[in-house]
Design goal:
Layout: H1 3-42, H2 48-85
Helix pairs in contact: 1-2
Length: about 90
Amino acid sequence: MTSEMVMTVFKETINKIMLLSAPFLLISIVLGLVIAVFQAATQIHEQTMTFVPKLVGILIMMLVCGPWLLINLSEFFRMILSLMQEL
């Protein structure tokens, strides 16, 4: 395995990590901001009000983005396997 192949795999891995984690990070940031504004407006500072909506939002994102995540991961693993077969 050449250093060029290693760098290609490393670059693709970092790209996939960022691409696949972005929807979950964005939904948790948006929900956190909405909940923080609501808590500041109502002065209700309950810890479960921040945790439960984020959990539900992430679970919904997993259901919505699940097939897309699976397709991206399977393409990535096929790329890795094709690189390994070239050895």
